[in-house]
Amino acid sequence: MGQSTREIERKYAAPAADDMSWLSALAGVNSAASLIDRGIQDLDAVYYDTTDLRLARSSATLRHRTGGTDAGWHLKLPLAGDSREEIRCPPADEVPEELRELVLSRTRGAPLRPVVRIRTTRSVRELADAEGGVLAEICMDTVRADSLIEGGGHAVWTEMEVELSEGGDPALLDDVEKVLRENGVDRASAPSKLARALTETAPAGYTDREPRTEAVRGSAGEHVSRYLVAQVRALVDLDPAVRRGTPDSVHRMRVACRRLRAALRVHRSVLDRETVDPLRGELRWLAGELGAERDHEVLAERLDTGVRELPDELVLGPVAARLRAWDVAGADTARHRTLDALASARYLALLERLGELSDRPPLRAKAARKPKKMMAKALVKEFERLRQRMDRALALPAGPDRDAALHQARKAAKRLRYAAETAGPALGKPARRLGRRVKAVQKVCGDHHDSAVARDALRRLAVAAHAAGEPGFTWGLLHGQERATAHAREQELPEIWRRASKARLRKALR
């Protein structure tokens, strides 16, 4: 597996060649800092992308570089702010298969090819503290970019790069930037060398994509489209993290699927149903495949916590060992299910359709209308659907039927909450207030459902323990605690639902 590091850097326009005052000023960023000259490096990198530059469009870069201290393949994926994750693999003639998989959500299977060559002469200085620890690396780069697209040109420029040392305080970059600005050095206009190279060396008339369909400014369609694009981007960005097993990534990708499904259903008045209804089905499939791993993770944590919180004298038999064996087997099965889904042709086809959804949202004529009235109407409709499900669930006696009905109400509450998120920019405070109230309902229903799932798992564990001649006392005790938890949630729910539903929603959303 490739080596992963977190990179935090900022790029600046080159200072005037005859003015080096900024160098001495930088040493003042830290009271005991000094600048250490580390000499010159010659770097040669070939950047790879699809013909229509799908990596560049999603702020990712893939290159093969020679020279410097980190020659080889580098994949950079965007994180929040100035951060990026960089995954490195050793030098090789072809793009490593690991990196091909990690960019699949962006390339959607399109072939990778060389698109630009960037050669850099780099002057390196390190900003070090009193003990010699490196705080940041400051590089002056003279860059030559040559397009590898037929008919492309070349460009030459100079820029400066400031990269924070691993584990450094990001606030240092703000201090450095303040000094640079005081000395007339501003941020670079392009976010990366590749972005500038592609802009300045592209063949005349070259376009990297089909024109995107734009909704009417300020319309309901614009609000919905913007939300859809954000959720598609979240799903695409999370794909590499899920493949690498990054904590919480499966959960977040599953949530992106659910948010997309909710938006496609709730806002069918502005979207073409023949296009989005099949897409909802495919998102449901993907969320289900991801759900196996996420649900096992949640259940395992719940059961483990239950065992650890018991007094030692109430844990009879090899309870912890049996629970670990169950967890390992279940986690391995669920993990393979996730990876199989991401490797499937069905997932690849879904990614292609999501790309089309972002670029050309299937808007109906109603999408050109003002958003407030249409979104308020959609929220009212979803709220009434939740009310019907909740009233039915609360009218049932305790037992499996009520458990199932509350689970359906929970899903309706989640869909309404996501719809309120979409409507937030248009409706403001009423939508946000609705979202908070519904989240409380969803949370109680969720804990009730998790308790039902835990009771089923505990029963199966107890049966296996009994068959092996082990005591079943602890499993039964945990089962009883989960029954008590479910009962408490059932007692709590009517009042929480009353608070969520007491306001006159139609009036609040006018």
Q: In one word, what is the shape?
A: globular
- Mind telling me the CATH class of the largest domain? Mainly Beta
* Mean pLDDT rating: 91
String of helices and strands: EHEHEEEHHEEEHHHHHHHHHHHH
Task: Report the biggest beta sheet as strand number plus sense, adding barrel if it closes.
Answer: 8 strands, antiparallel, barrel
Neighbour order of strands in the largest sheet: 1-5-4-3-2-6-7-8
Give the DSSP E fraction (strand runs of 2 or more residues). Answer: 15-25%
Q: Outline the low-pLDDT stretches.
A: none
User: What is the CATH fold-level name of the largest domain?
Assistant: Hypothetical Protein Pfu-838710-001
The CATH architecture category of the largest domain equals Beta Barrel
Taking all Cα atoms into account, the compactness measure Rg is 28 Å
Q: CATH superfamily of the largest domain, please?
A: Hypothetical Protein Pfu-838710-001
The termini sit apart by 55 Å
| Class per helix and strand makeup | alpha+beta
User: Portion of residues in helices?
Assistant: 55-70%
The number of domains is: 3
Q: Could you tell me the number of beta strands?
A: 8
Q: Helix count? A: 16
